[in-house]
Amino acid sequence: MKISFKKLDHIMLCIPEGKEEEAREFYTNTLGLPELKDLGYPLPNGAIWFQMGDIQLHVRAEKNHSVSDRHPAFEVHNLAEARTLLEKHNIEIKNESKIPDRNRLSFRDPFGNRIELIEMT
Looking at the whole model, is its pTM more than 0.85? Predict the structure, then answer.
């Protein structure tokens, strides 16, 4: 017997308490993600939900927030355009090590969450 996984549904990133409006600003205005406000039910635990491609990103305040190298990685259509947008907002970019058949970079959101972007070649 095994678990029959279908797809990734959502990712949750944590932010420090009291930074919800800053998170909305970054994810909506900087990254251009639409916020999901009316899902027909109350959003649990004060989470803020965004649509990110075919998955959702949940952002929730956490009392003991710490910086880590844990990260989600998202495939994008155009890594050069993503890099330009991040640079326009003065977001520090880290060029990640080479992996065959993909280009990639990472950055941190204002709360220290590491996010990787990948473009298949």
Answer: yes
Q: Which of 116, 112, 105, 117 is nearest to 14 (CA)?
A: 112
Query: CA–CA separation, 96 vs 43, rounded Å?
Result: 35
Q: Length of the chain in residues, anyone?
A: 121
| pLDDT tens column, 54-106 | 999 999 999 887 888 889 999 999 999 999 999 999 999 999 988 899 999 99
CA distances from 17 to 5, 20, 62 (A): 33, 7, 6
What's the CA dihedral at 95, 90, 32, 103 to 10 degrees? -10
What whole-number distance in Å separates Cα of residue 24 and Cα of residue 15?
Answer: 11
Tokens of residue 24, six digits: 């909305």
Query: Would you list the DSSP string of 72-112?
Result: -EEE-S-HHHHHHHHHHTT--EEEPPPBTTEEEEEEE-TTS
